[in-house]
Amino acid sequence: MPELNVINLSKTYTNGRKTHQVLDDINFAVNHGEFLSIVGPSGCGKTTLLNIIAGFIPTSSGQVIAGDKPVNGPGPDRAFVFQNYALFPWMTVKDNILYPMKMQKVDIQIRETRLNELLTMAHLGGKETLYPHHLSGGMKQRVAVIRALACHPRLLLMDEPLGAVDTQMRHKLQLELEAIFRKDSATVIMVTHDIDEAVFLSDRVIVLSGRGKIAADVPVSLTRPRDRKNTEYIRIVNNLNDILDDIPQPQESELNAE
Ligand SMILES: Nc1ncnc2c1ncn2[C@@H]1O[C@H](COP(=O)(O)OP(=O)(O)OP(=O)(O)O)[C@@H](O)[C@H]1O
Ligand SMILES: [Mg+2]
From ligand 1's centre to the CA of 20, what distance in Å? Predict the structure, then answer.
């Protein structure tokens, strides 16, 4: 059984008398342990799709099945990493990571064990008493990711998690994130603008077109960690860039009057 099933999902936003169909009959499934990236032009509905999967916003039609249950709202089975980290600034690293475990009423001893496991996994040992404003962007990002993983979610949803980090740090964090996900056997859906990042991290890349459809579903079956100089790696990156180049940018003129 897939970890996630998106079935005939459509989403229309209505603003006054104007409607805008952002997602149009989207179908895909994600298997356990799979890392799926979603790419597409700005405004094509990537965040909307991720928010629907998270249960933050409802579908207009169709449904999302997480495990064996239809998604009707947010749940601890689906953790979310926001682009701006969304750490609690008044809590230390330790308290930020413990927070979801407290909410889930995880046993105190298990909490402490998991906390240490996560800190080690993310190379953050010794940083637990610091506050978010003491951390670099990359460190905050790692705290946000391990906090999301704390309660072993079935699914980790990430919206441009490395959007705010420079290329060099990004490459370093990609390697670290990959190691964290492999170790935790996480199932991940990541939205990104960065095709190279998608190919580096994913088992599969879905391209959304500006018309709310899936333009391509591209498998990446290269051994990990990926070698950016590998011919097949370069071919997949170029292929995805070609697919994206052929997609027209969503235009305001595509807003339809009712
Ligand atoms: N609450 C809302 N009400 C009306 N329109 C919305 C709402 N949220 C998003 N939209 C519109 O839906 C479209 C898709 O938005 P979305 O944020 O999902 O795009 P995106 O692919 O994540 O873009 P980006 O790459 O720039 O983050 C946009 O045209 C946006 O203006
Ligand atoms: Mg977005």
Answer: 10
- Residues 73, 32 within the same domain: yes
Q: Which residues line ligand 1 (CB under 6 A)?
A: 13, 15, 20, 22, 40, 42-48
Instruction: Give me ligand 1 centre to Cα 58, in Å.
Output: 14
Distance from C-alpha of 148 to C-alpha of 135, rounded to nearest angstrom: 18
For strands 69-70 and 256-257, give the pairing: unpaired
Reported as a single tens digit per residue, the pLDDT across 4-20 is 999 999 999 998 888 99
**Does 87 have pLDDT greater than 70?**
yes
CB 204 within 8 A of CB 34: yes
Q: Which atom of ligand 1 is nearest to the CA of 193?
A: 25
Task: Locate the ligand 1 atom nearest the alpha carbon of residue 45 and give its number.
Answer: 18
Q: Are residues 189 and 254 in the same domain?
A: yes
- Return the DSSP state at 38: E
Q: Name the residue among 34, 26, 30 with its Cα closest to residue 3.
A: 30
46-61 pLDDT, tens digit per residue, is 999 999 999 999 999 9
- Residue with the nearest Cα to atom 30 of ligand 1? 43
Are residue 199 and residue 71 in the same domain, yes or no?
Answer: yes
38 and 160 both lie in a single domain: yes
- What is the CA(135)–ligand 1 centre distance, in A? 30
Number of independent structural domains in the chain: 2
257 lies in the same domain as 159: yes
Report yes or no: 61 and 50 within 8 Å, Cβ to Cβ. no
Q: What is the pLDDT of residue 258?
A: 40
pTM for the model stands at: 0.90
Within this chain, do residues 3 and 27 fall inside the same structural domain, yes or no? yes
Pocket test for ligand 1, best of 17, 20, 56, 206 (most atoms within 8 A of CB): 20
- What percent of the chain is predicted at pLDDT more than 70? 96
